[in-house]
Amino acid sequence: MRLRNKPGALDTIKNSPQYILMDGTDWKGKWQQRFEKPHPIHIEVGSGKGQFIVGMAKANPEINYIAIELQTNAIISILEKQLEEELPNLQLLLVNGADLDEYFETGEIAQVYLNFSDPWPKTRHEKRRLTHKNFLQVYEKIAQPEAELHFKTDNQGLFEYSLGSLSQYGMTLQKVWLNLHDSQFEGNVMTEYEEKFSKKGQPIYRLEAKFN
What we know:
Elements: H1 9-14, E1 20-21, E2 41-45, H2 51-59, E3 64-69, H3 72-85, E4 90-94, E5 109-115, H4 133-142, E6 143-153, H5 156-169, E7 172-177, H6 192-199, E8 205-210
Parallel strand pairs: 1-4, 2-3, 2-5, 3-4, 5-6
Antiparallel strand pairs: 6-8, 7-8
């Protein structure tokens, strides 16, 4: 998704160092110091405009959240929400999700969220999918023992691929939803894409898996 350039985006980032970083290497192993209180750290890889992670941070003050996004114009939308809300349990990181082990220490993360990731449907782009084994290796490296990965998408092909990829990697699939909004799941926080696709009647797929 291509977003419009926001005038002054970099200035906004530079003027908000308490909430957002463009390089997290100096905080590797020390992320708890960026939060008001020490709590389990959950990360969302590819946070888009941030509706999900801001909603989660508001609903769960006992958890610390980090939004990870590569697109400057997307993360600015999250930062604008954070500047308005001033949530003490939310931090933003403008980096590539493929390099997370450069920013987080082994065992520093309690949970990983992947929401409506780019499906990269062509076979030659398989390694770009956020549920490819190369990404799973990075998540596992920074995750605590038996940490969980939660994944949502509207793309059936990506969901089927992810089920296979996680299983082959040796993760334990705990729960699977083939139509999340037609289930009894409680506490769902929707992303912008999820609202858009669900209004069109498209099923939302979701899974919860655990690293072993």
